[in-house]
Design a protein that fits this description.
alpha/beta; D-Maltodextrin-Binding Protein, domain 2; 2 domains; seven-stranded mixed β-sheet; four-stranded mixed β-sheet
Length: 359
Amino acid sequence: MMRLLHVILFASVLILAGNCGPKADQGARSGSTDAATPNVVRIYTHRYYTTDKQIFDQFTANTGIKVEVVKDTDQKLLARMQAEADKPQADIFIASDVIYLEEARKAGLLQPFSSPILDRNLPTRYRDNTGHWAALDRGAVGLAFAKGKVDLSTLYVYNDITSPVWRGKILLGDPRKASNRGLVAGLIAVNGEAATAKWLQGLVQNSVPGFSAASDFDLIKALAAGQGNMALVPSSTLLQMMAGGNPDYAKPAESVGFIFLSFADRTTVFYISGAGLIKDAPHRDLAVLLLEFLTSEQQQTAFTSATIDYPVNPMTLPHEFIDNIGGFYEIKKSLNEVAELYPAADRLMQAAGWRSPAQ
């Protein structure tokens, strides 16, 4: 019944979204807009999904506000925002990970924002402590494994994968990826540097020598090809391969499973993608209206359908494919605390010998 309800909600999302916000031509919320373009919101985003255009088109249909999108990598968008700091050319920065939002905040490129609707849509744990950014979806790095090659009864907590029994069995991806950096930063936040350094040493000792992968999808393909027994990947990786309809990805995914690892208290390090409101944004109030829309119950279904990550609005049902891996309990450390530890994570990974393909 729950899955049927999800399908009905997802099929109806663009219709139901009409109730998510007032019409922009009322003018009450557009006091900070530029006179030449009074009904425009401009977004800098890392996302390239076709579903985003559908979401933004629906927002325009509901409100009369046009959405302009500029796509690039997080790093290039940050550089562009810095270059435009004296005269911002965009209103919203959508980033793939909390670290980029925190870099923008610390550089003075974001401003705080809030509204009763956002407060209703988002639990406080998905907001910046100072209100400069908000999560849009979430997930966790877990353990992908080759079916038939792993005894799941021996795997539960993070330390289990450092056992010598897995020597030469683990495929590691690029340590520069935000998901891997965030995992190690979260381990530091909970266990401290000394314990995390020891964990990394065991992990690297158990890795497949000389292996490298260009992407997390390639890690799954390598598992399917018998190059290793397990790999650390974001929760969305396997699900995207299963749901995408491309046999080059779907077929390898059939032979790979996924579980979440946790600490002794059953909590798991998690990641987010999110959005910040750019400082001195030319269309501040309209941008807040769009952020309310993106975090609404209905639009969270559409927004997370592309990534197959977990929604941040607690009223939104997860994508049906998430039934394949289940859920997780989040660590109690704030996202701000974890983001502060990314540099320490980089240092510990380097010291343990977890190298990027270029190294």
